[in-house]
Design goal:
By secondary structure, the protein is an alpha+beta fold. It has one domain (2-214): Alpha-Beta Plaits, CATH 3.30.70. The protein has helices at residues 16-31, 70-77, 80-93, 131-137, 178-186, 191-197, and strands at residues 2-8, 39-45, 61-67, 100-110, 117-125, 149-154, 169-175, 202-214. It has an 8-stranded antiparallel barrel with strand order 1-3-2-8-5-7-6-4, surrounded by 4 helices. Helix 1 (16-31) packs antiparallel against helix 3. The two termini are 15 Å apart.
């Protein structure tokens, strides 16, 4: 199974609310028909008092798609459905010139149901570490979580015409509410301690508070 996260900023002039509504309705109908698609989850940004509660991560759209294989994924994105329907809608929804990509394999796959509040964290491996050492660094606190938890590591597959992965790992963990997620993130003995343990091992390159929406 290959997991693809696609990320892009919303089109200029679209409010976050209008963007999410279009993404959830019109766009999900088109993208949900991509051949070979096994799972399609949208991560809708959560607003607190009308604003993003965390620094802007570099994207508004963040979606997780799963296919049986890399070849199946490539076939889906070469299909007429993607070219004629999805790409047409993307042009009015997001700025694809600033698109970011992540292709990964699951390390932790406690699937999170739709409608769940999550923290999505993009991690970059410290250049002093090998991929194997980075995977080891993700053990312990970064792997221990009692709730819904998904974690993916880059498969590092290079192919002509495809950009490099924006991160080396993506960590997605579930919370009961936005308030609980933000409290955990800023608690010295919880989220802060997790980040401190990664010093010299990995760097957080983006983090978003979101609510999952299952399309497929």
């Amino acid at each position: 199974m290959i997991t693809r996260l696609g990320m892009a900023p919303r089109t200029a002039g679209l409010s976050t609310t209008d963007f999410v509504e279009h993404w959830r309705t019109t766009h999900s109908v088109a993208a949900g028909k991509i051949p070979g698609l096994r799972r399609y989850t949208q991560f809708h940004p959560v607003l607190v008092d009308g604003r993003l509660p965390l620094p802007y991560p570099g994207f508004d759209a963040c979606s997780l798609l799963q296919f049986d294989s890399l070849d199946s994924m490539d076939a889906g994105f070469s299909s007429s459905v993607y070219r004629d329907e999805v790409m047409t809608d993307e042009a009015v929804l997001v700025d694809k010139t600033r698109f970011s990509l992540f292709l990964g394999a699951a390390r932790i796959a406690s699937v999170i149901p739709g409608g769940t509040v999550v923290l999505v964290t993009l991690l970059r491996r410290h250049p002093a570490l090998t991929s194997a050492e980075f995977s080891t660094a993700l053990d312990g606190p970064w792997s221990a979580w009692s709730g819904g938890h998904e974690q993916y590591v880059s498969v590092g597959v290079a192919r002509a015409g495809r950009q490099a992965d924006v991160a080396d790992a993506v960590d997605i963990r579930a919370f009961d509410s936005p308030e609980q997620a933000l409290a955990w993130l800023t608690d010295e003995e919880q989220g802060v301690a997790n980040d401190v343990r990664m010093a010299g091992l990995g760097l957080t390159v983006g983090r978003v508070l979101a609510r999952t929406y299952e399309v497929v």
